[in-house]
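Anyone have tokens for Thioredoxin superfamily protein? Sequence:
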Amino acid sequence: MDKVRDLASKKAAVIFTKSSCCMCYSIKTLFYELGASPAIHELDHDPSGRDMEWALRGLGCDPSVPAVFIGGRFVGSAKDVISLHVDGSLKQMLIDAKAIWF
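Reply: yep, here.
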């Protein structure tokens, strides 16, 4: 859990993913299109990936990826991020966290 929290707090936007996950790709693309450059941590390429995956599940992220943090705060998984984008609040969250500038 400590490694997840440490990595999640190092950048304004952080996404934990797996390289084979299509929803992870979609969420990363959404962030890039909004102008953000999130830190991407691919759990299947990290030696601590399995432990981080269990820590993310402990935060309530099921499935464990994608897991999105903005401003060091756990936002949720793909459905949560898409809901925030649809209601217009995702962009403001990224601006408030200084992940994008307008």
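The chain is about 45% helix and 15% strand.
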